Amino acid sequence: MVNQQAALLKPETLIDEFKKIGVTHIVTIPDSETNYLYELMQEQDWLSVVPASREGETFAIALGLSVGGKVPVCLIQNTGMMESGDSIRGMALDAGFPLLMVVGYRGWNRHGVITDTAARYTEPFLNAMGVNYYLVETDEDAERISIAYEEAKKNKRPVAILVGDEYHGFNRV
Amino acid sequence: MINADDMFRAFEPHREDAVVIVTGTAGKHWADHTTKQNRDLNMGGAMGHTTSAALGLALGLPDEKVVLFDSEGSLLMNLGIIATISGQAPKNFLHLLMDNECYATTGGQPVPNAQDINYAGMAKEAGYTAAYSFDNIEDFATNIGNIMQETGPVFVAMKIVPEVENEPIGQRTRRPTRSRAETIRTLREELGIS
Asked: What is the pTM of this model?
């Protein structure tokens, strides 16, 4: 019998990617699946965490930070992203600046039937907004984060990372 | 109530090098008084999120004074931002609210509970370092110089004369305004941000 280590996306991997990209600020609303990541982010002396009251704020705060020469990331869940539609339009897409959105893919599952409508509407929402996205499930996918940010810089647009491993990698295991 | 044109006239001598963002119907009068256009920023809007963008700017430019002339209709759409601002506590941020008690651009319908909201009280209780309310130009003009020197985030609520627009959108006279992209570019050049 072979013991296999489940493939995980470790929060440390995201932190490493953020540092590689040169991220200065994480604008976020924490959710239940990202608490360990939140704690880790707060421990980084090169990173400022900006907790927001509502997801729509995150895109506008990111715009202001970007004008000031900083490199923000919006870290939210798919439910809040969908609630932020007009902010994504007016403050991110229309403003035209590079922005990485890291979005918890609540309800998504590679196996079986997706019953959570939050997951069902996530990709159609991004497609409707014209926001390209990459799925990140394990540490092996992590380089997609840098790829996404390079794309955001090149096109001066938001690009999303859909984090498809909410229930393992973002919590202590 | 305070005439917005008078308010901006009283504010301008105390601006120094502050980056100024205006919003709402009353905000258009700032163009008649500003003498440092390179430090005026059009952040655009999206359901109240000019306030959020101004916070981001204050955090991104901690060595620059950032002054936002907000409007109450806008703030009400995203009232949680006063908690976000208080949590970040940007020392360089002055948040002025132009409260005309109505949605002037849509015909003057009152905002919810228009006459009885204490915006300064909410800001103070949310955690701003100080909050003031003015309903006449004399008091505002007397105090704005000292307020500009205070450590932020500071909130100032002002009762403003509404300038209601009833003409159909397509028939309204619009002042030429600088685009968001242009104001961002000139501000960044001014501050040496690549």
From this structure: 0.94
